[in-house]
DNA sequence: ACGACCGGGGTCTGCCATCGCG
DNA sequence: CGCGATGGCAGACCCCGGTCGT
């Protein structure tokens, strides 16, 4: 608190004493900042305004280099920022440092999203506070900025962010949902309110078209089930829904049930990818001698199968079939396809070692946690060895 | 005590294209 | 024209354990 007060005090001071002398003392304290890990109290505005606008700002470059910023990367990403006369890099660095970001993290953030240094302290503080309404600690926010600086800095519109959060809450998303949304898909919060609204309305319309009775609840529920929805385009989601419907000849009711259940996950796949996966699944099933209705039932029971890339799915199926499991068993318990090829391979080997009879015991053993699986194997090998 | 059933949890950015504005 | 803001895209699963019926 006191720190913040003193910072803005110094900003005022700087505005009053905007002189050449300050340039020098600022440079000095910036170097000090680097060596003593930020004790400086200066907010910038200290770069030479008389520079021609088509060349890079030398004093800015020096500041950035002292902060450990990868200038080459910054230049490649947002060259215009390096030509600006007035920037806020010291202010930003200090701000982030106070929030617990390390020097390395700060440098990485600015390197990857240079425009961050154009935000004012007031703006930063307000935006941070808005994010803090969703998170419990500064550390969580720092870790997201480190992961995805763009999500925090790309938009300069705090009012829109405020309205956006209010909008998400108004949908009935609880604080846990919001946290998951912001943690996993931080870009949701730098979307414009308008864009998020569009997606929500789009989902509600889909629900109504399919004969659903509660569009609001539908939208909220599938958004909370798949936090990536809001960072995808309505075009992508819509095309996927249409492709599912036509290629599997689903009725409205079937499609609605699919979307409300496990089917949400596949909506965010790229259009080509989903198309490819559907096609490849159909082909593989036909090679294995199955009917179209089998494919449809398989997808309805286990939509995630379409999330698995064509090559992976084919080798996974082959791996199971080679391991002595029938396609009929797989159709009955498709969840075994959830597990990695490596996992499946290892388990098949273990099961073969203890002489596990899939025909007698089924294949559910493959769909269990590692702990349970190991316990089971131990029991089985204990029995067979004694 | 056991296993089938079922739902939930982690995870996801960095780049490019376009538009409007000064 | 150059820049800031913003939309959109590619990539392409895996694993765990509570609970309930037997």
TrEMBL record:
Main localization of the protein described in the UniProt heading: mitochondrion
Keyword Oxidoreductase attributed: no
Tree of life domain: Eukaryota
InterPro entries in UniProt: MTERF, MTERF_sf
UniProt KW Manganese keyword: no
GO cellular component assignments: mitochondrial matrix
Pfam name, any one: mTERF
Assembly and binders: Monomer.
The protein's name in its UniProt record: Mitochondrial transcription termination factor 1
Native organism: Poecilia latipinna
């Amino acid at each position: 608190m006191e720190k913040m007060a003193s910072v803005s005090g110094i900003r005022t001071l700087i505005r009053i004493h905007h002189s050449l002398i300050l340039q020098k003392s600022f440079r000095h304290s910036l170097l000090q900042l680097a060596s003593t890990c930020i004790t400086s109290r200066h907010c910038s505005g200290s770069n030479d305004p008389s520079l021609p606008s088509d060349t890079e700002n030398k004093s800015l470059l020096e500041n950035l280099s002292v902060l450990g910023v990868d200038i080459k990367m910054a230049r490649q990403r947002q060259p215009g920022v390096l030509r600006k006369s007035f920037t806020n890099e010291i202010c930003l660095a200090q701000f982030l440092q106070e929030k617990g970001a390390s020097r390395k993290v700060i440098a990485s953030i600015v390197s990857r999203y240079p425009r961050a240094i154009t935000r004012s302290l007031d703006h930063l503080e307000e935006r941070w506070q808005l994010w803090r309404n969703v998170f419990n600690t500064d550390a969580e926010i720092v870790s997201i900025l480190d992961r995805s600086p763009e999500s925090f800095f790309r938009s300069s519109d705090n009012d829109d962010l405020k309205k956006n959060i209010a909008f998400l809450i108004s949908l009935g998303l609880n604080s846990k949902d919001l946290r998951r949304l912001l943690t996993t898909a931080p870009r949701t919060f730098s979307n414009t309110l308008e864009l998020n609204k569009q997606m929500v309305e789009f989902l509600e319309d889909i629900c109504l078209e399919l004969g659903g009775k509660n569009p609001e609840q539908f939208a909220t529920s599938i958004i909370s089930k798949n936090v990536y929805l809001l960072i995808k385009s309505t075009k992508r989601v819509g095309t996927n829904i249409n492709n599912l419907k036509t290629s599997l000849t689903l009725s409205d009711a079937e499609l609605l049930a699919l979307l409300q259940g496990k089917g949400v996950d596949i909506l965010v796949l790229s259009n080509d990818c989903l198309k490819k996966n559907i096609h490849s699944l159909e082909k593989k099933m036909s090679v294995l001698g199955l009917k179209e209705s089998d494919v449809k039932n398989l997808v309805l029971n286990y939509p995630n199968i379409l999330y698995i890339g064509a090559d992976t799915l084919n080798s996974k199926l082959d791996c199971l079939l080679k391991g002595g499991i029938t396609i009929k068993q797989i159709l009955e318990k498709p969840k075994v396809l959830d597990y990695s090829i490596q996992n499946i391979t290892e388990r098949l080997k273990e099961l073969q070692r203890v002489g596990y009879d899939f025909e007698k015991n089924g294949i559910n053993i493959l769909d269990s946690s590692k702990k349970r699986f190991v316990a089971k194997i131990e029991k089985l090998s204990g029995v067979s060895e004694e």
